[in-house]
């Protein structure tokens, strides 16, 4: 499966994928004010700002999934519902781990909404461990919304 850099022409398609997948995974388990803040436009704006750190599986304009890195964090990982179970998430997390290791990151981390059991099982299957809970100050158009989340970590090694 090919993982590639995101291109500017697919920001709208990626934003729609992110919005749909976020609603599916998070809307029922996070506070209502966060769900109100996570609009399609907010995802589009965030993607435009982070496109350089975004990697994608799927044809340009028809993404199946994406991941975004931020410093030593696997910041976002989302897969379209129709592509789940097809290896997209595994390809994206493997690519993210390789890129983080190449940056010299020894311990990578990510957050997972408490109650997102499907994602938690996937991360654990990929060798990530739940290090505890943290309060993540989420930036939204409505201001900062603090959300308690699970923090996952993984020790990385640089490949030869």
Descriptive terms for the model:
four-stranded antiparallel beta sheet; globular; 160 residues; Aminopeptidase; 7 strands
Q: Separation of termini? A: 21 Å
Q: Which of globular, elongated, flat, extended, rod-shaped describes the shape?
A: globular
Low-confidence stretches: none
Can you tell me the CATH class? Alpha Beta
CATH topology: Aminopeptidase
Number of strands: 7
Count of distinct structural domains: 1
- CATH architectural arrangement: 3-Layer(aba) Sandwich
Please explain how this structure is put together:
A hairpin with a 2-residue loop joins β2 and β3. This protein is α+β, with helices and mostly antiparallel strands and 160 residues long. It has one domain (3-155): Aminopeptidase. The chain has helices at 11-26, 32-37, 40-50, 88-102, 117-125; strands at 3-5, 54-59, 62-70, 73-79, 107-113, 129-140, 143-155. A 4-stranded antiparallel beta sheet has the order 1-2-3-4, with helices on both faces. Strands 5-7-6 form a 3-stranded antiparallel beta sheet.
What does this entry show, briefly?
With 160 residues, the chain is an alpha+beta fold. The chain has helices spanning 11-26, 32-37, 40-50, 88-102, 117-125; strands spanning 3-5, 54-59, 62-70, 73-79, 107-113, 129-140, 143-155.
Please render the helix and strand layout as text:
Elements: E1 3-5, H1 11-26, H2 32-37, H3 40-50, E2 54-59, E3 62-70, E4 73-79, H4 88-102, E5 107-113, H5 117-125, E6 129-140, E7 143-155
Antiparallel strand pairs: 1-2, 2-3, 3-4, 5-7, 6-7
Helix pairs in contact: 1-3
